[in-house]
Amino acid sequence: MSDSKGIFEKIIDGEIPCWKVYEDEHVFSFLDIGPLSTGHTLVIPKKPYVTLDEVDDATAAALGVAIKKIGAAVAAATGCAGWNVLQNNGAIAGQVVMHVHFHIIPRADGDGLGYRWPAGQLDADAAKDLQAKITDAL
Question: What is the pTM (predicted TM-score) of this model?
């Protein structure tokens, strides 16, 4: 067991036990041990990417398919009214484990979960400038 491995790598390698729900060539998924709701599930790439922009295209595609499939299965198993997919990139965005991971969080009326969404307004001149910068970066 290597001390340089992160917790998710140790889970994938079976060095730390988990409640696995799905695995394929690129993706591993298991129940979160600190769930926000019943059925809270993590979906991770097997390779230890830190942020989503580092993920190779084949793994990104596999993650997208797995999130869809696992989300539907979690919803069916829990009978939830809806579900969130949450993914954080970097500590400032709330990422605690520095290995890309998606949270599938089942939701119910009155569950007490929520998030702040203090929407602003998009200025047309700023939008035009930002649009150009983003498209140039692509």
Answer: 0.93
